Amino acid sequence: MLTDRVWEALVKSFASQMKSVFTASSFVKEIFTAGYPKLLSTIENLLERISRDTDVEGVPPALSFEGNEQMIAAIEIFQTAFLGLCLSRLSDLVNSVFNMSSRGTVPSKEHISRIISRIQEGIEAVQMDVRLTLLVLREISKVLLLLAERAEYQISTGPEARQKTGPATPLQIKNFTLSQHLQEIHARVTSIIARLLTVASDILSPALGTIYGVACDSVTPLFQAMLDHLESCISQIHDQNFGTLSMDAAMDNTPGFYLLLALSLQEQKLYAQGL
């Protein structure tokens, strides 16, 4: 049909112009890349307008589904650049907040809020298009995995992190603060995607699970030390041979071990509250 040939020529010309702009003009390239969601929306509105204005009863549509897809594909080069830009911006922010050269420094709440806000802004910028939203979520998933990797590197596991007596050590406070930050990211991002399609949760769930796992790992050294200590106390009770003692000796000895266990439990409770 004549309309098919005209549309094919139009799409080829448009695709050629888009490729030329992408390679020859850095200024326009930057504008179309950063503003790709608006560019995509403009093209989709144009296609919808053409379909609506040429909808005549008894006449084949002037624009087929394949024609729509060809027009969208003509700006795909900017879509790829846009997704790369989203990934690099978020990755740069995570790398600056969780700096590998400053392992002993825990990010502030403001830093964590900035990461969450940037993720939310990235999702909101593409919410008008389901397909683009899912593509952006895949990039965000990569960023969350990077964040989990950087946070895991910050965890302290030395003797000071496992200390069970006295006030909380600086390393224990750092680990607990890190755990709280990661739980905040997990909760906030989960809340954001809860308003999206179910498939959005499917895309981010593995990365969010990794974030939560690192949050737990950051406090594991201390709680494992507490558990080992309690198991040692219980083992001491079981090792006592009360049958060989006289009744008076058993009565004198038994409370001591149970008192030891009770004091140990109370000690761990107070210590955890202090953290």
Give the count of helical stretches: 11
Query: Class by helix and strand content?
Result: mainly alpha
Low-confidence stretches: 253-261
Estimated radius of gyration: 30 Å
Helix content: over 70%
**Count of domains:** 3
Report how far the terminal alpha carbons are from each other. Answer: 75 Å
Indicate the proportion of strand residues: under 5%
Main β-sheet: number of strands, strand sense, barrel status? none
- How many β-strand stretches? 0
How would you describe this structure to a colleague?
By secondary structure, the protein is mainly alpha-helical. It folds into three domains: about 1-75; about 85-155 and about 165-220; about 225-275. Helix content is about 80%, strand content about 0%. Helix 10 (about 220-240) packs antiparallel against helix 11 (about 245-275). This is Golgi transport complex protein-related. Pfam families: COG5_C. InterPro entries: Cog5 (IPR019465), COG5_helical (IPR048485).
